[in-house]
Amino acid sequence: MKENKLFSSVSHKNNFTYLFVIFLFTMQIALSQSGEKYFNIASQKSDSGDFNGAIEFYTKCIEIEPSLLEAYHNRALAKTNLKNYEGAIIDHDKCISIDSTNADFFYGRARAKYFLRDYKGCITDNSIVIKLNPNFGLAYLNRGLVSVFIGNKVDGCKDLIKAKELNAKNAQEIMNEYCK
């Protein structure tokens, strides 16, 4: 039987050291499981519409597993649902600082910027989403709608047409209203 390298370096003669290593290993497993437990509870709370509860448990998960981007992203979505757009942007910024290739992080931030009436920032983030994922219909829809709102009807309607081609929800209705 091959001995685990972690334990082979610890002398069994020094029982205290051996027990201490086992304790640290056990704590590492327990903390990992706790982070997952908090994440699962947060997800359940979010699914049931308890966004304050979700934020609380995503925060606990992040305290244990600060590199879990999905927890930051989901907490940002819960903050958006509670109209805490500034807080959502902070969480999305954290995600983007670690993984700038995930279109969902930019899309979430674009939505928060839209609600804060940062239309230029919203358009910029939706443009990044489209660059990362050219088939992200909602990014075309949102960029098009915001473009129309700020007076760029030609480009906005082009985006809305693309959104319709990609089967983005409500694209046809929005085109009918704004691209006559």
Structure description:
With 180 residues, the protein is mostly helical. The chain is built from ten helices and no strands. Helix 4 (69-81) runs parallel beside helix 6 (103-115). The termini are far apart.
Topology:
Elements: H1 5-8, H2 15-47, H3 51-64, H4 69-81, H5 85-98, H6 103-115, H7 119-132, H8 137-149, H9 153-165, H10 171-178
Q: Look at the structure and name the CATH superfamily of the largest domain.
A: Tetratricopeptide repeat domain
Strand content: under 5%
Rounded Rg: 23 Å
CATH architectural label of the largest domain: Alpha Horseshoe
Q: Biggest β-sheet, characterized?
A: none
Mean pLDDT: 87
How far is the first residue's CA from the last residue's CA? 76 Å
CATH class of the largest domain: Mainly Alpha
Number of domains: 2
The low-confidence runs, each spanning 5 or more residues with pLDDT under 50, are: 1-13
Fill in the keyword field for this structure:
180 residues; mainly alpha; Serine Threonine Protein Phosphatase 5, Tetratricopeptide repeat; 2 domains; 10 helices; elongated; disordered N terminus
